[in-house]
Amino acid sequence: MSSRGRTAIRRLGLAVVGLPPLLALPAAAIYREKHRPKLPKEYTLQDLRGKTVVATGASSGIGRATVSKLRDLGANVQSGSRSEGNLDLADLSSVKEFVKSIEKCDVVLACAAEICTKKGETSVDGFDKTFATNHIGLQALLVEIEKKNIHPSRVVIVGSKLERNGLVDPDIVKKENGTRLNDRPDEQYTAVKHYSDTKLCNQMLTTSLVERWPETKVFSVSPGMVDTDLWRNFPAWFQILTWPVRKVALRTSEDAALGVLYACASEEAGEQKSGTFFVDGSVELASEDSRDAEKAGRLWKVVEDLIRERGQM
Ligand SMILES: NC(=O)c1ccc[n+]([C@@H]2O[C@H](COP(=O)([O-])OP(=O)(O)OC[C@H]3O[C@@H](n4cnc5c(N)ncnc54)[C@H](OP(=O)(O)O)[C@@H]3O)[C@@H](O)[C@H]2O)c1
Fold it and tell me: Which part of the chain is the NAD-dependent epimerase/dehydratase domain (predicted)?
């Protein structure tokens, strides 16, 4: 073949390989623009001077962006995380220690979560690690606050629409001592499905807390799909492959924080009933499973017993 022919084939090859990503990036940008949060046109954010927000997950991503806006409203934020060296939600004794330092709490912002990618990884207390971090630690934190006779006016739990894919059976959680959440066959396990199960647990916790804390407005929020460090435990190849799409298509933490802030601090959210699930300031229905008060109550009890058995209640 002539050298001109070889060059033409090489160019054609480059076009075939290079064109799809080139076309995908503008498509991703259009997707992001379409999915930017559209909050109500007008709403009033409260003056939070003199108010204390206890926040988890504020060292990064959506939590960090939200507390920055809460501080702009005058709130004093007491933040707990591993990187700040004062809270590991996957360690019940650390949760207890953190709550000792809380003297006042008007709003709880529960934003911390992790996706552990090693199946079967356990916490120091012997629970499944993702479940311990995303759910057991949160329930323990709330119970410790309750024990101190502190009554926040709002609790905002950052959940996820992925809860709709979650599967949780309180009887299995009990039987397996918090190392398993359901009877999904092992071959169908993925880290993201498992994370979704823990987000369903969070949504069930919202349901339980509405009854348990009648004087508090308990809200959950879906922040949308956001470019954060949530995928930090995934392998390098995954991070590299998804990087362009994450950067171009997903929401920024600042955008996602608007809906979380709305639930934490708007007058309008305060007028909604406890248990409301917000998406960008609009009310949506969480999964039917998560709204089953009897089942949610059983999960609360099972988790309470697991915490008590570790001598941490
Ligand atoms: N990103 C999304 O697309 C998306 C979608 C739906 C819902 N969400 C939810 O949004 C929330 C915030 O996540 P993000 O996307 O902003 O992720 P992120 O950037 O990874 O932030 C997670 C936060 O959780 C904290 N955290 C993790 N493990 C912890 C532990 N054992 N103890 C204490 N704190 C711990 C981290 O702090 P340290 O590492 O310093 O401990 C960090 O501040 C999560 O509840 C997540 O489920 C995210």
Answer: 55-197
